[in-house]
Design goal:
single chain, binds benzoyl coenzyme A, 12 helices, mainly alpha
Amino acid sequence: MTIDYDQKIPNNVDLASDRTLQRALEHWQPHFVRWWNEVGPEGSRDFEVYLRTAISVDAEGWAQFGYVRMPDYRWGIFLNPAEPDRRIGFGDHRGQPAWQEVPGEYRSNLRRIIVTQGDTEPASVEQQRHLGLTCPSLYDLRNLFQVNVEEGRHLWAMVYLLHRYFGRDGREEAEALLQRRSGDPDNPRILGAFNEKTPDWLSFFMFTFFTDRDGKFQLSALAESAFDPLSRTTKFMLTEEGHHMYVGRNGLRRIIERTAQVMVQEKTDDPQRLRALGVIDLPTIQRYLNFHASVTLDLFGSDLSSNAATFYTTGLKGRFREGVIKDDHELAHASYPVLEVANGRLSTREAPALNALNERLRDDFIRDSISGVNGWNSSLEKTGIAFRFEVPHKAFNRQIGPLAGIRFSPAGELLNDAQWTAGVRSWLPTSEDREFVQSLMGRVAEPGKFANWIAPPSSGINGQAVDFEYVRFN
Ligand code: BYC
């Protein structure tokens, strides 16, 4: 499964043997590069970035590191090796051989899932376009660019599927993926969170912590798909996704560490004093957390969804770690708890498990997020600071599903409008918070130097020193 880098489009799918497909993708390639140059990382064309490039899809030693100018990055098509005799693990076709082609009756649903997944990848690059101008260090700048080029490759992964398996309408969808724009009122990206701004590095780290984690759970559900090429490509995407969440988790840990240092040194938890000292007070970080967690919770879709039920019964999209769940993998008679507001109270009721699959994946995501946040809390505990971060209740600030528009506190208490108005400034970032965070965003681009509001990482990339020249400006 070594990747052939002699081709114009690096790949491990023997692209050269299918000239029509190869030509179609080679036609799409310059459109992608034009998109990258137009709305990819701003002003970065000539930078040489110490990037990781996939050289094989083996679990061991799949990447090499070296300086690359980003427009020359070798974006390509990499699928995990096929599992011999892979069988479908869930739904009506359970036990049958996985599909190597798209069954006609599932074509439009499958295309829609692939397009939705594909749309998020360029969207995130567009959202992060300006961040390089205000990087807190070369190390962080390099990590941003690594995330960006890999999101570009994830777009390639979905575009390959569209071109290879969906004919003319697949090619049209692949073009449209380069035409929608994050936040464009006339031609926005498909899902809500991907039209939000990522204006500063606190938002970037929150995005990679929460929204890339949605990526982990959605890709894991797609890795279970009966459509084997989708399963194989998402499995390889997941290996790259791990680094993106690491960037978020560690970036936030370093921000919190730096604030805690100043709190201990100055013996204060007064947000105004801390702000004057140039670090981000913990309540502001919590408000950003509340925002990004709730916007990401919406990405799982409606609590009860007939789409989700259809995707599952037809074998298109499974559950997180479907293979290790102990049940009948059909769910026709199973139930799952969902939230509802009844008689003026938030309560749970049992709903058909098939319809509640979005909710189930959301719950898996919440558990994973809480364990990440608890890691920062343990570090805070060691410093003697009493503050603890919390993932907001899943009813908080929702725009999708039956709880959309109903007011809840981050603790999950049902509120009237007056209570919401009284509390919202302490729960979600205010314009003053955003202005303050923005005011810290200077550009630190000397090897080994870090902005005042973030601690250095404990180690560098790929065994390099923290003060390594991760980006060379030309
Ligand atoms: N915003 O039946 P429902 C990643 C729409 S992140 C706007 O509940 P369904 C990444 C929905 O499309 C992972 N609209 O929906 C991370 C539907 O519209 P139509 C991305 C929304 O289908 C960081 C209608 O509402 N991958 O990889 O059960 C950086 C009814 O909703 C939203 C995927 O999401 C929303 N938040 O579930 C880079 C996997 N939510 O058809 C990358 C593929 C719902 O009535 N996608 N709607 O017009 C899916 O599996 C499903 O489309 C969803 C929605 C789970 C997203």
